[in-house]
UniProtKB/TrEMBL annotation:
Residue span, EamA domain: 4-133, 141-266
InterPro entries named in the record: EamA_dom (IPR000620), EmrE-like (IPR037185)
Keyword Transmembrane: yes
Keyword tags: Membrane, Transmembrane, Transmembrane helix
UniProt name for this protein: EamA/RhaT family transporter
Organism placement in taxonomy: Bacteria, Pseudomonadati, Pseudomonadota, Alphaproteobacteria, Rhodobacterales
Keyword Nucleotide-binding set for record: no
Residues forming coiled coils: none
Organism this protein belongs to: Phaeobacter gallaeciensis
Alphabetized SUPFAM superfamilies for the sequence: Multidrug resistance efflux transporter EmrE
Length: 275
């Protein structure tokens, strides 16, 4: 169990690290969010290919697998667009509307059980997202893109539960990376910037952080029950806040701190109820 927890902490730190590299690419080096999203999927495909079982390739003929990958591609593109102008902590807090939407969609479309307490916790998390985004009170377009990214990702999570019976985690991971990269290739290639050492290093870090973080997540889930590890997913918010302060000197304001606390608290409590 200790190894699984340690892997989760590392994984939940690596994923925001990949997004931090993406923010540097789009904000400091004027790279296109399309390029960042495409390169992440393309390089991620190459990284996971040696670990991909043969059973993954027939899944590429299933339209539902393509639909799921398209949702992920949209989520990553919109979060990179949001990171162009917004702090990491704010983007991740707004992005965490995804699990809230997934809870609602899973209850409606997949007929998964929904309790009154968990529903109240989801609404509390949604209130936290509203505190961060503050629609109608000087909200920026960037945070709107973060919410849109979270909506795509929440739909992706629901689709993942819908299709979980089709193959192993590694097989489905390969299909989402390969298909999303393929879909974004025409636009991504046109947006390739001049590959200076800094841009090349950040591009590799963006892809490696995301790919390795998600791979370690899968490894952790093979060593401990997902119900026990689920609360640690919210460590991403803490890691994103720390990285935003250390790299960009961005500290959340009082409203954002309150929103982060609501999202984190409701998410952890909801996850612990599943144990």
């Amino acid at each position: 169990m200790f190894q699984a927890v340690l892997l989760m902490f590392v994984a939940m730190s690596l994923i925001p690290t990949g997004d931090m590299a993406g923010k540097l690419l789009t904000g400091s080096y004027n790279a296109s969010p399309l390029f960042v999203a495409w390169s992440r999927f393309a390089l991620g495909t190459l990284m996971i290919l040696p670990f991909t079982p043969r059973a993954a390739f027939p899944l590429l003929l299933n339209w539902r697998v393509w639909f799921r990958a398209l949702l992920l591609a949209g989520g990553i593109f919109f979060i990179q667009t949001a990171l162009q102008t917004e702090p990491l902590a704010k983007v991740f807090a707004a992005f965490f509307i995804g699990p809230i939407l997934s809870y609602a969609l899973s209850a409606i479309l997949l007929r998964e059980p929904a309790t009154l307490l968990r529903s109240v916790l989801m609404l509390t998390g949604f209130a936290g997202v509203l505190l961060v985004v503050r629609p109608g009170f000087g909200a920026s377009p960037g945070l709107g893109f973060a919410v849109l990214a979270g909506c795509f990702y929440g739909s992706f999570l629901t689709a993942s539960r819908w299709l979980s019976h089709l193959g192993s985690a590694r097989a489905l991971s390969f299909t989402q990376l390969f298909i999303a990269g393929l879909i974004l290739t025409p636009a991504g290639i046109l947006q390739i910037p001049t590959l200076t050492p800094a841009i090349t290093s950040l591009t590799l870090l963006s892809a490696l952080g995301s790919m390795l973080g998600n791979l370690l997540l899968l490894v952790a889930y093979t060593r401990a029950p997902s119900t026990k590890l689920a609360p640690l997913v919210y460590f991403q918010l803490i890691a994103a806040t720390g990285l935003g302060w250390a790299v960009f000197n961005d500290l959340p304001d009082a409203y954002t701190w309150a929103g982060l606390a609501l999202v984190l608290g409701s998410g952890l409590t909801s996850a612990l109820l599943r144990r």
